[in-house]
């Protein structure tokens, strides 16, 4: 028998911290004003709720997805002042005053952006779960670098994992968008 | 054809690029309670007691359930009903569900789980194939019929093995190991249940609403018509959401107890425990070839590390043995398969279900035979390619087969034959096959495998089908097919899918069956509708007799627009609704166990992979992949390419880095950070070629695309490593350390296949005539087999 | 969804104020800058502070190659990796910053945070339930080391990408305490212990990083990891070289992810001084540098392989630095 297994019951009792104690703590609530997709939102939230939770659960902006909540997959990417950031690792109090963009905020009304169109046309979204994060990372890249090379696209999107597409159609969609913009 | 064969964007592309698509975890019904599941901390233990009293006293906790509340066992296969939603007698892996809480907030539910006291008697865990084949130190994981920790033993002999060995001029044996890995869908499993007025509704991220429906009915003891299962927009499955899961049953029970909606979304770590991924498989293969390199006999053995429960495991075990004959002509074939229980998360179906492992072994084994007899490996494989429209020694019927053309395409494009021989650079070639849907349903019955209904009114077309679009684009295929038949644009077709209340049955998105089966059902339904529309239009146009001159397409039917035609038909016939269905013909041979392997059509692939191998570090970098896939007919080539590229990606992950690895009884790295899946930076360019062979039974000739293209990549990559350095890595994945070790000894891989108590007498099967292509009633009558097989 | 445990959040106006508050609260408080290391660990209950004290923003990069640079502690890793003057003067440092984790993470992660990044071990960087299942280790909640069960100490790995180059350069950090500031060589910021890996007081706030004048020094950083993004280093080498032609005037090599602190390869530094930097010298220096590295089975891939790779990484870093100097 594994010595560690025999031990484990005893070890449980030793933990300095267990989930139960957590509930004894006071909740530090704050009124936070967030600028999301150009709209002001005033919310009263526990300070320990991440931006991801507040977007999805308080503001009903469920377009922002999550795949690990530990900063390891890029799925929850949003833009903070135009730069991709992981909403699972941000506190709303830390982004007060910043412009937050989620996937719901990139199209102008019902008109898709060229990037969204290219994703749709080329099949860059299969299950679509990584798509919001991909779109936002790609949009930030195109703002910074209107005509990115393939290597630059790969580099800029390397924090966003996808399991369906093999990435190639996403790269194509970003290039197509850049080419179309250049052609205009 | 107007739309078939053309690349249209997916019908769900809009919702997916705007964030409007509602995935299971996006659903937030009013008053929803949050569920957390307490899981076993031990790989193997008896449960002595469970005390939930402390948890129940926590404010905000609305209900706590244990296995005593859900004692009925279930499982995806009728032959292995060995799971409980919550265990109360014994746990079999770290992560096995034990109790569950519904609370007003997720953090309260988590704290309540922590407050549940479970007393365990810890048992010695069994963590490997070899350990599972020894007498257990404490007790067996399951009380299965087979001895030791064996779940299932299979032994078959097709044709005259002795004659086969006697004809062989050269015989070779090899041992291979294929490590387990997991699907890692980006979306974590999630389910919400609601119970109102004696009726239960479950929204889930499942690939198979039908089987979840069955499991809920069984465990909750509710009639099926009081349960509705709805597949939410799906965030990726790859086979990982093809079992009914504990959390789906648990939220249903909690919703029934509390009268409130209950939601459970697994954490990423829990997704690793839900698993049902690739079985680690140890394989032994022995083959005889004649003077020309033609296979005379083959003996294939597999030992599968199944994890703690059955899942699809019995089918997986068959799949490690049955499809060898569908790529290569093997006149005498013996297969022995063995699945073992271990104290790990249960394995099941992952893209390619049970076939990537033997494919890997077989392709490398043939490469080695070729090297030994001084034949080019491509040539050796070619000489053994199965013939189109033939029947294999194990009674599988091959129809269209593009192996030759696929091979030609990738050889030509890659310049394989002319490649420069530089140390550290290499190319490898491999082929594969996969099924377009299983010929037999999991629950054997005479019902159709897929049904489609079409409703036409108010100028629009609506298609109803139980199939679940898991991102592969099956909804688009349905829209494509119906649009082609009715002369409308695919984007004009509305879809209602994967809802057990509103759609007719489809068995689900697994086994590469949806395009083939739901596609055929849609063709039938649409042609019936088309006939009604044409008849109504003909009457108005005063066309009599031959109606084929009435053209359908580009938004018109004869002299009328489609919406005018819809009105004419509705006026003539009343409400317009048609249905179609598909059931594969009886194909499997006249022997027990013939239900796994038959498919109405097989897809074929060939691939060349080019790699760079750094001799100093052992790091393998794939440089380029060429892959040709016999798709039969590409209904939407853009989606097929997407499936091919996605398969290659997933295959490269398996070939190079992905491992479901255990240490000290625990999953070694249940996280996105440490379970390595390739990023944008690891993905080489892929050139893909679609080969169209027009299968006689596929819809418009189409076959599968979602799984087959994964299969040749792992062996082609290992062959490329051999081409680069002259050493064999007889294992997957090819980690840098294995390459360095192989450089020391020429090979890295398992030394031997363990002793397995095989049945003394295999099931001996007389082979059919290779040109006997009869199926269905004619076949049944000839061989005295019944329809319900 | 994995969620953070409850905490109180404080945002003092100054670094000194933050230090004072952190000092007052003692072990109940932790400092947070970008949160990219802290928040995942809080979600996994490796850290459970009652109070989070926000490190005040200091986002400026001042100075130039001639005078040296001062980088505010909350300069993001992205900012440091793209700063033109820094990229020119200290490519090794900028590269190291640009190789940390992934692009979105670098937009939040700070240079101060990366210097203080918690040591890592794949028995420790796990969820609460996982750690509870296997039995807690001494780094949190337990009393033994699961990698080396007989060991009296913790062997978690220093995983900072930027520390090795900073140390090689002779950089210093400015720390704020309740009573004022002090400056410390980056090398002196670390201790060889997986648990108490920082030599500063827990409440001391990193205010800035000072890089000395470039003065002809060339730098390089080579990072080994499984994937080109997201992953922590499993071996790495930062190099600062001063060359006279191809002859080494002085060299400093510092390794990442081979011990509980950034490991300075002094024997290699001494060996290199005065030598022509030819392939054979590089090979010998790499061998010397790699000798003290003793990887254990607590990071990605096998420790045997990682041990072999240290040499390769050092060679590559030296070659890269040489290439830069010659160019």
Word description of this protein:
The complex is a heterotrimer of chains A (184), B (789) and C (327). Chain A is of the alpha+beta class. Helix content of chain A is 39%, strand content 15%. In chain A, strands 2-1-5-3-4 form a five-stranded mixed beta sheet, with helices on both faces. In chain A, a hairpin with a 2-residue loop joins strand 1 (29-36) and strand 2. Chain A is elongated. Chain B contains 20 helices and 34 strands. In chain B, helix 17 packs across helix 18 (713-725). In chain B, 66% of the residues are buried. The radius of gyration of chain B is 27 Å and the shape is globular. With 789 residues, chain B is α+β, with helices and mostly antiparallel strands. The longest helix of chain B has 28 residues, at 514-541. Chain C is α+β, with helices and mostly antiparallel strands. Chain C is 32% helix and 21% strand. The chains are: A alpha+beta (184), B alpha+beta (789), C alpha+beta (327). The interface between B and C is medium-sized, with 36 and 29 residues.
